[in-house]
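Ticket opened by: R.M.
Priority: normal
Category: complex prediction / small molecule

The reporter submitted a protein together with C6P and asked that the result be attached to this ticket for the collaborator who will pick it up next week. Submitted input follows.
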Amino acid sequence: MSAVSAGALPLDVARLRGDFPVLGQRINGQPLAYLDNGASSQRPRAVIDAERRYAEEMHANVHRGVHTLSQRATDAFEAARERVRRFLNARSSREIVFTRGTTEAINLVAQSFVRPRVGPGDEILITWLEHHANIVPWQMACEATGAVLTVAPIDRRGELDLDAFRSLLSPRTRLVAAAHVSNALGTVLPVAEIVTAAHAQGVPVLLDGAQAVPHFKVDVEALDCDFYAFSGHKLYGPDGIGVLYGRESLLAAMPPWQGGGDMILSVSFAGTTYNRLPFKFEAGTPHISGAIGLAAAIDYVDGVGLDRIAAWERELLQYATERLERIDGLKIIGTARHKASLVSFVVDGVHPHDLGTILDQAGIAIRTGHHCAMPVMEFFGVPATARASFALYNTRAEVDRLAAAVAAARAMFR
Ligand code: C6P
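Result attached by the on-call engineer:
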């Protein structure tokens, strides 16, 4: 056996790119440089094949049929749940609820955990860095109950003010909800400190891991968080599938939030009894092929190695930051000391949307806009930014193309 552990070996990015059929395309006559992974990352063939195999060999409804296909589908679906459990290091697969994505996972907690427990004057504490998916469900819950949304501030680097966060935790705080990684700036939040401070006051914590799980190892037991949400489509998996991890004791005490098939044990007009965990929270036919594809994506990511992915993306982020900083008139928005794999920026005289369109002409896909994080834009006094977000298959050459195209756009608008 080699003395060098697999974790220490660099990624063979050129080879890995071959796993992603979509990357071989030309867009507007140029090789595609896909730098919009924060919105959705691309799927490797292993994921596409897993979904296809499901359709060709086992498509049927789950938990319902005694026939062979239904049993195959059920086994594969439940195996996917177990795969997610191992990925997150949750204690039990009862703690893994399949949802449509991060948004639905957070809404589930807002409806089923928060709404029954809060009243006028109670508080939900979030941070200024949140995606709308981790703001609006709490605003809706507050509107319905008279609770108050409090927001921990950030500084000019885009880092959470941890002291202010701690001081905002009050005897009325009923839940803390925070991003693990900001989608608009890339800031990695100090989630261990957040959880410790909240738990010291008996307050449960939800972490929005949409932008975290594709980039580094997440262990919910080590984090000691109470809820953790993520989406398949940012993790090289299918869209329309996501996960809510919930601490079993909390999930067990929560009422279901949607009613229908599969979430019940018995139904009569005299009353209904609900199914055990996690099925109580999965009303109706789930996204079976999505769950199976998600498990394949997790297998893929774990096969490559999240430590190696993190190391490569760190290098790419540093390189991109250096290259972009050199461009006259370009300002990076979000300069936290601990950032994950993305860089947000504005360029003097060039609206981000124009920049996005010009880059698309050069075959480069980035995201422009407010990134569903309008409070972050407001804080930095910009209506929008351009955002390049990296995945394991991106290269330094793609960063060079990005920098060259941005510099050319700047020159064009001068
Ligand atoms: N951010 C982005 O381009 P859904 O849509 O449910 O899969 O994920 C919502 C969501 C929640 N939290 C964070 C931190 C996110 O980044 C996202 C999705 C995409 O940044 C689309 S707006």
